Amino acid sequence: MGKEYKAGIGYDIHRLVEGRKLFLGGVEIPFPLGLLGHSDGDALMHALCDALLGALALGDIGEHFPDTDPQYKGIAGSLLLKRVKTLVDRSGYKINNIDIVIIAQEPALTPFKKQMKENICGILGIEHDRANIKAKTNEGLGAVGNKEAIAAYALVSLVKGG
């Protein structure tokens, strides 16, 4: 019998607002606006958490870390990812690969992708050749294109055992 695989997809979007710091992939990005959320608003980390939870058929980030619970007020997306990683570890599956797309009209995110990838690989304990991050604009279309929000998609595959 061949290896057993699972896959999951995650998505998140947060509105850009004044008075918040901008965090993506656990990196604080210098920008006059930040992402609105009960937590730190790190849409990239939230999408990745959702993708991992989806692959394990364990629901979504809102079920595990509800925005109605005060203990998650201002919590870092990287901490949520660490908690989701414990669920992956208990499942008997390992992360095969991750592919992430961040969609932001601005700021330009290419200079921050390497640090984001290092953060994610460090938290998840995976080699750098198992994770990829792409940064795109929305070509001026919709809330993201109008510089009102930032969105992220994440796709993960897991493999049984080692």
Q: Concise description?
A:
The protein is an alpha+beta fold. Helices cover 30% and strands 32% of the residues. The protein has a single domain (5-160), classed as 2-C-methyl-D-erythritol 2,4-cyclodiphosphate synthase (60s Ribosomal Protein L30, Chain: A).
Outline the structure in words.
- The chain is an alpha+beta fold.
- The protein has a single domain, classed as 60s Ribosomal Protein L30, Chain: A, CATH 3.30.1330.50.
- A hairpin with a 2-residue loop joins strand 2 and strand 3 (27-29).
- Helix 1 runs parallel beside helix 3 (77-91) and helix 3 packs across helix 4.
- The protein is built from 5 helices and 7 strands.
- It has a 5-stranded mixed beta sheet. It has a two-stranded antiparallel ribbon with strand order 2-3.
How would you classify the helix and strand content by structural class?
A: alpha+beta
Widest beta sheet: strand line-up: 4-1-7-5-6
The proportion of residues in beta strands is 25-35%
Total strands: 7
Query: What is the ordering of alpha helices and beta strands?
Result: EEEEHHHEHEHE
- CATH topology, by name, is 60s Ribosomal Protein L30, Chain: A
